[in-house]
Amino acid sequence: MYKNSVERFKEIVRVLAFYGFGYVVNNKIKKDENKSPSNLKKALEELGPTFIKIGQILSTRPDILPNKYIVELSKLQDDVVPENFSDINEVFRKEFGKNIDECFLYFNESPLASASTAQVYTAILNNGREVIVKIQRPHIYEKMHLDMSILSKIIALTKTKFTDSLIDPKEALDEILSATEQELDFENEKDNINKFKELNKDVAFLYAPYIIDEFSSNKILTMEKINGFKIDNLKKLDEGNYDVYDLGKKLALSYFKQVFEDGFFHGDPHPGNLLIQDGKICYIDFGIVGSFSKSLKDALNDAIISVAYKDPDKLISVLMSIGIKKGFVNRNKLYEDIDYLFDSYLSTSLQNIEMSVLLQEIFDCAKRNNIKLPKDLTLLIRGTVIIEGVLAKISPDIKILDIAIPFVKSNNKFSIFKELNSDEILIRSYKFAKDFYTLPTKMIELSNSILNGRAKIQLQINSLNRSINELNKMVNRVVYALIISSMIIGSSLILNTNIGPKIYDISIIGVVGYGIAAFMGFRLLISIIKSGKL
Question: How far does CA 152 lie from the centroid of its chain?
Answer without folding.
Answer: 20
